[in-house]
Amino acid sequence: MKSVIVGTAGHIDHGKTSLVKALTGIDADRLEEEKRRGITIDIGFAHLELPAANGESLRLGFVDVPGHERFVRNMLAGIGGIDLVVLVIAADEGIKPQTREHLDICGLLAVRRGMTVLTKSDAVDAETLEVVRMEVADFLRGSFLDAARSPIVAASSLTGAGLDEVRSALAQVASEATAKDSQALARLPIDRVFAMKGFGTVVTGTLVSGTIHKEEELEVFSSAKRVRVRGVQVHGAAAEHAIAGQRTALNLTGASTEELARGMMLAPPGIFRTTSRLDVSISMLASAKPMKDGTRVHFHAYTMETTAEVRLYNTKQLKPGEEAYAQLKLAHPVLLLPGDRFILRQFSPVVTIGGGVVLDAAPILRKRSGDAVTAFLKTMHEGTMGEILVARVDRRGFAGLTREDAAAEMNVRRETVEKLALVPALTLFGSTLVATSVVGRMQTNLIEELRSFHDKNPLVAGIGREELRNKMEATGEVFEGVLAQLATIKRIEVTGELVRLAGRGVVMKDEEAESRKTIEVAFASAGLKVPSLNDVLSGLKVDRVRAQKIVTLLLRDKVLVKVAEDLVFHHGALAELKQKIVGLKPATTRINVARFKDMTGVSRKYAIPLLEYLDRERVTLRLGDERVIL
């Protein structure tokens, strides 16, 4: 069964709620004040099942919105997720201000299908009805409800005349509507929150994408609270799950009614992030006044509303009827994604002035002018999914973009990203995507960074891995991936934590090489009775800075071993010591400081550090004042 959401639109008292009741048998006016005053104040809901001409069954969910200009904000909360609209115009009044505003809003929200119903047909004679029909057809010309492709039906909710024609036209239009994607990630904008005795917290909304099952865990945006779905209802009947395009009620655990409100969004946990900045495309109504850069507006999307500051890209003013790219700075964080539509209303007086579509819900800091910004947003607006992915990855530079973050930014599943990423323009390192052109630049930059380092530090064998990564401003996966590529083609050498250009080991001048040999011989010949390092360095021909670098090289190559802060030994002497201690077994299994001094001939100054070194090397184990030979 195909599910379609139908929204009503039109001026106050033109018979929207009466028409819905006549078609469905359900009174969408649920508030006592609405019944008392005879007008719709808040959004109401009803449902109807119809057979389509092709034999499929259609389940229509009606969202009945208020027509009074004071309640347009409530109207906007209900109309955001609709698939088609029924524009209601009373035959005895014709086109009125909210008729025009509601039609403008539907156009800005990119509603593409619908029909027009001339209600209260019993209140006028046939000749007047025909005149109204012609006026309405002229009013709708050029819009998505143009009479050339969208039906105009006259009906009376009072007498029932024309209702069968309305149902027939509805079935035809609904069968042509594109079904929402039930395979996408689920999002449910909340439009009502209440408590039911014996059940607890209940929320309702129009499921705009995905599927929600019983017992599923969801996240509340933007409170970050986690809730569990205890029960699901679809159009008033219990169900195991709800799919995109259905009016849905969820019985939730984990949140009270005080913690939830209209305007919040339910979605799978741990995937999406809220944002206070949106890069968008804005379309101004022809009836609006010019909008300057920096203008404050009322912002409406799905069931939420907040205020926003409009920062235009590449222009200082947007004229009536024009379109432009802009960044919206929102007063409160929201969960919106590329493709979501929104409405802008003037700050004061509050009238609809425009709307548009979200292009990027994860904008990065950049200048608000230039061809690069325009080109990126144009790709977001008009590009294929593959082109959008490449552009999103490319703008992240050396940091790249993980497949998970790419899926969240684009509002697609990770599997979709993995398929789109199989192009030469992208390279995958671990779970991170990088533009292949960026990888080439990174390889060049890394080689130049190493060359510069070697030129400045001829006595240092290489640069530390982490230091080099920080210079590259790359994530770990990307950096390690590029290192591996360059090492494979033998452009660089990686030894432990050091990275160097291939063939660029330490290059020493004659006096430096002589000094290196002098240091090594001094410690090798001393055995365990080593001289002071400072004494050895002071007798060299090179300056102190170069001497320290030579020592660093000897330590790095493990020719010398630092046993204590100011105590260095030759590796050969230490290897011989280890062998000597192990050779005491099995005759001797324990040794103390005194015996160690006698055996090695060293003073306590050397004995204690050497024994601690043997402990660290797991040759001995200290137990009290003795060492057990392992």
What does this entry show, briefly?
The protein has 630 residues and is an alpha+beta fold.
* Percent of residues in helices: 25-40%
Q: What integer is the average pLDDT?
A: 87
Annotated CATH homologous superfamily of the largest domain: P-loop containing nucleotide triphosphate hydrolases
CATH topology of the largest domain: Rossmann fold
Cα-to-Cα separation, first versus last residue:
76 Å
- The CATH architecture of the largest domain can be given as 3-Layer(aba) Sandwich
Secondary-structure-based class equals alpha+beta
Total number of strands = 35
Query: Tell me, what's the shape?
Result: elongated
Overall structural domain count: 5
Spans of 5+ residues with little confidence (pLDDT < 50)? 30-41, 67-71
Determine Rg (CA atoms, Å): 37 Å
Largest sheet: 8 strands, antiparallel
- Give the number of helices: 19
Please identify the top-level CATH class of the largest domain.
Answer: Alpha Beta
- Percentage of residues in DSSP E strands: 25-35%
